[in-house]
Predict the structure.
Amino acid sequence: MKTIIVGGVAGGMSAATRLRRLDETADISVFERGHYVSFANCGLPYYVGGVISDRGDLLLQTPESLAARFRLDVRVDHEVTAIDRDAKTVTVRQTRSGAETTESYDRLILAAGALARTGITPAGLATRTLRTVDDVDHITALLAGVTGQASAVVIGAGFIGLEAVENLVHRGVHVTLVEFGSQVFGPFDAEMAAPIFDELLVHGVDVRLNTTVVASADGGVELSDGSVVPADLVIDSVGVLPDTSLAARAGITIGASGGIQVDGSQQTNDPSIYAVGDGVEKIDAIDGSGVLITMAGLANRHGRATADSIAGEPGEASPALGTAILGLFGLTAAMVGWSEKRILGQGRAHRVVHTHPASHATYYPGAEGMSMKLLIDPVTDAILGAQIVGGSGVDKRIDILATAMTGGLTASALTRLELAYAPQYSSAKDPINQLGYVAENLAAGTTRALQWHELAAARDAGAVLVDVRSAGEFAAGNIPGAINVPLDEIRERLPDLPDGPLIVHCQVGQRGHTAARILSQGGLDVRNLDGGYRTWTAGVT
Amino acid sequence: MKTIIVGGVAGGMSAATRLRRLDETADISVFERGHYVSFANCGLPYYVGGVISDRGDLLLQTPESLAARFRLDVRVDHEVTAIDRDAKTVTVRQTRSGAETTESYDRLILAAGALARTGITPAGLATRTLRTVDDVDHITALLAGVTGQASAVVIGAGFIGLEAVENLVHRGVHVTLVEFGSQVFGPFDAEMAAPIFDELLVHGVDVRLNTTVVASADGGVELSDGSVVPADLVIDSVGVLPDTSLAARAGITIGASGGIQVDGSQQTNDPSIYAVGDGVEKIDAIDGSGVLITMAGLANRHGRATADSIAGEPGEASPALGTAILGLFGLTAAMVGWSEKRILGQGRAHRVVHTHPASHATYYPGAEGMSMKLLIDPVTDAILGAQIVGGSGVDKRIDILATAMTGGLTASALTRLELAYAPQYSSAKDPINQLGYVAENLAAGTTRALQWHELAAARDAGAVLVDVRSAGEFAAGNIPGAINVPLDEIRERLPDLPDGPLIVHCQVGQRGHTAARILSQGGLDVRNLDGGYRTWTAGVT
Ligand SMILES: Cc1cc2nc3c(=O)[nH]c(=O)nc-3n(C[C@H](O)[C@H](O)[C@H](O)COP(=O)(O)OP(=O)(O)OC[C@H]3O[C@@H](n4cnc5c(N)ncnc54)[C@H](O)[C@@H]3O)c2cc1C
Ligand SMILES: Cc1cc2nc3c(=O)[nH]c(=O)nc-3n(C[C@H](O)[C@H](O)[C@H](O)COP(=O)(O)OP(=O)(O)OC[C@H]3O[C@@H](n4cnc5c(N)ncnc54)[C@H](O)[C@@H]3O)c2cc1C
Ligand SMILES: CC(C)(COP(=O)(O)OP(=O)(O)OC[C@H]1O[C@@H](n2cnc3c(N)ncnc32)[C@H](O)[C@@H]1OP(=O)(O)O)[C@@H](O)C(=O)NCCC(=O)NCCS
Ligand SMILES: CC(C)(COP(=O)(O)OP(=O)(O)OC[C@H]1O[C@@H](n2cnc3c(N)ncnc32)[C@H](O)[C@@H]1OP(=O)(O)O)[C@@H](O)C(=O)NCCC(=O)NCCS
C-alpha cells in the first residue's frame, strides 16, 4: 500500500514515522515544497533572538536521517500541485527545476499547514513573515547587515508577533509593535492582557494599538495615525489561515471555519484522503463546533492518529481545547478553552472568577505572582476556559486546568484536586484549589461577586464602594470615591455603614470575601469585587 | 453553638477560619498545647537551613491576628487532656501553670496531628525531632554553639529526613544519614530513588543504608555496623503516627490504619465530634481502604470541609491520592497514588512504564532531564500511581497526573491531553502524552516490554540482548553480554540476528520501541527493555 504525504513538518512527518512503525511494508513518500522537513517551527523566533544559537538545532530530522531510521522517501523542494482523485494520483513539481511528475497513491495525507493571512498589510510593502527556516535566514541576514541599532516594525500582537518582538528586543533591535485591535494578545480578555502590555513597555517596545501600517515611508513605514516609524525590517504576523487550496481544488470538503473537514479518523470526504494539522478544522471541546486551532501539539497528535487510521487502528476523535502558551520577557501567558470575549460573542451565560495568587508559599523565598481567570458555565458548573498570566508556575496551572477539563471536572471539583505541595512548589491550598473555592462560593451563593466592568454601573445605581484594605494600602492607591474600612475593623464599624447596596473590595478579592461574609450576615446587601483592586486596575487602564 | 477545636495549625485553624466565615454568630475556641498556632510546619526545615531567614515568616497567624480578623478565641499553651462525651465537655490544662478548667462544647473538632514514631531509635539517645517551632529553635541554637564544622546524624531518609539533610548541608553541617531500609526515600520504588541517592553523595552526605543507630558514643553515635559517626546533633525523622490518644481514651473509633475513623463529613462515631488532619484515617483513592496520609493539603482541605459539615453544608468525602513532593538540592522527586512496592504487596496485577524525557523541547536551551514511572491497571487501564524524579517540570507533571487520576482518565487517555506547548515549557508531545503513547502501545500489544528486574531471568532462559544504540554509546557503557546493532542498521542486519527470543534496548526505551516494531514485523520474538539502559542502570546499582 502506498501512502503519499503532502507537507513534511509537524503533522505530515508525525504521520509518516508512526505509519512506518506500524507497517514495515508500507510505501511512504513525503513531498515538501520547502527545503527543510521536520523543523522546529516553534523555535524559529528564538533563533532570530539568538537564544537558540545553533541553526542546526532547528532541523530535527533530515531526509537522510528519516530514510535511515524510518525508511521514508522524503523529497524536499517538491510541491504537490494537483490531486486527481479518480486516478488516485498527484502532480508533483520540483520547485528548483520546474519538472513535473505524476505519483499514484492508495492513501493521501494532506498536511500542508497554514498560510500567512494576506490583505491586511498594504500591498507593495516589503514585509516578511516568520514561518520558515528561509524566513529566519532572511531576517537574521538583514539585521546583521544593519550598522548601528536596527529597528523593526512587527505587525500583529498575537502569539508569533509577540515572540518576534521578544526576540528582536533580545537582539538589541528597536521594535514598534503595530496592532489593529484595542489590546495586545487578542486571544486573552482585555484585563488579562494588561500585564503583557506593561511588560512590553518595560522593555522599551513602542506599542501602537488601534493602528495599522498604511504605506512604506522613507527609512520606515507610515502608520494609520499619520506617524512614520523607523523600520529596517517589517514582520507581518497578523495571523494564518488554513492552506486548503490543493484540497479545495480537488473537491475536498472545506468546513465553515475554513479548514478541511475530517472525521474522527482524520478522514476527509474522500475515504482515500486524510488531512491533519493547521489546514484542518478541529472540533471544539466546549460546543462541538468546527474551529481553527493551529497548534503543534494537535498537529503531532492527529498526525499519529492518521497513521493509526490508515493502519486500521481505531481513530480517536477527541475534541480540541486550544491550550496555548506564550513566553514574553520572563512573563508567561497561557490559556485554555474559551475566553470571555468568545463566550459573550456566543451570548452564552457564564460566571467569572479572577484571582492573584503566588506561585508557591510566600514564606518560602522566590514566590512569583500570577493572575488567573476562570470561566464557568453557571448551570452545569463546567469549566469553559481559563487564562493565566504571571511568573513561574503559570504553565503548570494551565496544564492542570486543561487536564481537569478533559477529565470533565467541574469548577467546584478543583477544590478536591490533590496537588503536590512543598513550599518551593505550591501552597497547601494550591492556586487551583483556591480557584475552586471561589467558584464554589459563587455556585453556592456563599458570596456574591461583581466584575470590574460592572462596577461603574452598580455605583451609578447607588451602590457604595467599601475598600477593606489597610489604611496604608488605601493611601497608596484606591478606586476614586471608595470609603476605607479595614477588614479587621469592619465588625465594629458595621453599624455606621450605609443601608443600601454595598460593594466591598480588597487587593485581590480574598479579604473582600471575608468582609462580604461578615456584612451579608449582618443583614447588608453586599457584593465582592471579583479580583479586587488588581483586576479592576488591569481592566480600566 | 459552641465549637471547640483541639490543635491550632493546619487542620484545626482551617476549620476555625472557614467556620467563622460561614457563621458570624458561632462561638469558636481553639486550644493549642504548643506556643504557636498557624505556623508553617512545612517551612521549618528551610529555617534550619537559613533559606527562610526570618523566623517571623514561619508564623502565618497569631492568636491576636486571628481574633482581629476571625473573632476566634485562640489559646496557646493550652492542652486538652480529656473529653467527656456525655457531658460534652473537655478538660483543658494550661501547660505553663498546670491549671485545669472544663469547657463545654456543642461540636468538637480533633485536629491534634501526628506524633513522632518512637521505639526505633534507642532509648536514652539525645535526639531531636523536626516538627515544631521549638524544635527548630533548639536545633539552630545548638548548631550556632558549635565551633568549627558541626556534624549531624539524621535518622530516617523519608521526606522530612531528606529535607533536614538538605538544609543541614546548606548550612555547612557534615551529615550522616542513617536509614534502616535498603534505599533512601522509601515511598519511591528502588530504581526511582537511585538519583536521590546519587544526589546525596554528590553533596557529601555520608549515607548508611541497612543501618540503625544503636547507642550514643563519645562525640557521636554508634551505628549497627559498629562504626561511630560524629554528631553534635541527632535528628530523629523515622516517621510519624496519628496522635489519637485523646480520641481513643474517649472511645472514639480508631481505624485499622491507626487513624481516627471519620465519614465523608469528617464526623467520628460520635456525631458531635469531628476529626481532621494527620490524626485521621483517609480513604485511599485506589482501593477505598483506610490509609494514613499526612499531608498539609489534605489537612487544610478537610479542615475546611469540617467547618462546612458543622455549618450544615454537604460533606465532600473525596478519597485521597497521597500526592507528595520533595525538593533536594535542586532535584525534585514527586509521587501520586501507589508505588510498585505497594501494588506488589497487595498482589495486584499491574503494568509499568518508565520514560526519561526532557522538561521541554531540547532544541531550546535549558531543558532538564527527568525519569518517570507510571503504574497501570492492566485490565481497566486505570492509572494506579506515578513517580517522577528530575529537574524542572517534575512538579507540573505529577500534578497533571494527579488531576488525570481524579478525573478518571485512563493511561491511554494521557495521549489526548492538550497541554500547553511552547519550547520553553514543554514539547509538542509533552512527556505526559509520551507516557500515554507508551502505555497505549503496551495495552494494544503494539510493543511488548520487559522490566529491568526481569532481564536477568529472561537471559538465563535464553533470550539474547540487543543494544540498538550507536556504537559510541555502546562503547561508553553497556549491559554485559549485549550485542550492539544500531537502530539505523537493524533492517539490514535482521537476517543475522538469532532466531530465539530477543530483548532490545536503547538508552531510554524510545529507539528500542522502533527496533522492536521492526523486528517483530520481521517475524522475531522481541521485547523492549522498558526505560532502557537508564532504568536498568538505576535498578541494578
Ligand atoms: C514561528 C512559529 C512559532 C510557533 N510556535 C508554536 C508554539 O510555540 N506552540 C505551538 O503549539 N505551535 C506553534 N506554532 C504552530 C505550529 O508550528 C503549527 O501548528 C504546526 O507546525 C502545524 O503543523 P502542520 O503539519 O499542519 O503544518 P506545518 O508544520 O507548517 O507543515 C506544513 C508543511 O507543508 C508544506 N506544504 C504546503 N503545501 C505543500 C504542497 N502543496 N506540497 C508540498 N509541501 C507543501 C509547507 O511547506 C510546510 O513545510 C508556531 C508556528 C510558527 C510559524
Ligand atoms: C518538618 C515538616 C515538614 C513538612 N512538610 C510538608 C510538606 O512539604 N508538604 C505537606 O503536604 N506536608 C508537610 N508536612 C506535614 C504537614 O505539616 C501536616 O500534614 C499538617 O500540618 C497536618 O495538619 P494537622 O492539623 O493534622 O496537624 P498539625 O498541623 O501538626 O497541628 C496539630 C496541632 O495540634 C496540637 N495538639 C496536639 N494535641 C493537642 C492537645 N491535646 N491539646 C491541644 N493541642 C494539641 C499540636 O501541638 C499541633 O500544633 C510537614 C510536616 C513537618 C513537621
Ligand atoms: C519528530 C517527528 C518526525 C516525529 O517523530 P516520532 O518518532 O513519531 O515522534 P517522537 O520522537 O515524539 O517519538 C514518539 C514515539 O516514541 C515512543 N516513545 C517515546 N518515549 C518512549 C520510551 N521511553 N519508551 C518507548 N517508547 C517511547 C512513543 O510511544 C512514540 O511511538 P508511537 O508513535 O509508535 O507510539 C515529527 O514530530 C516532526 O517532524 N517534528 C518536528 C516538527 C514539529 O513538530 N514542529 C512543531 C513543533 S516545533
Ligand atoms: C492560614 C489558615 C489560618 C487558613 O486561613 P483561611 O483564611 O481559611 O485560608 P486561606 O488564607 O487559604 O484563604 C482561603 C479563603 O479565601 C478565599 N479566597 C482565596 N482567594 C480569593 C479571591 N481571590 N477572591 C475571593 N476569595 C478568595 C477562599 O475561597 C477561601 O475562603 P472559603 O474557605 O470561605 O472558601 C490555616 O490554613 C493555617 O493555619 N495555615 C498554617 C498552617 C499550615 O497549613 N501548615 C501546613 C502547611 S505549611
About this structure: Chain B touches chain A through 87 residues (CB under 8 Å). Chain B has a mean pLDDT of 96. Residues 296-310 of chain B form the longest helix (15 residues).
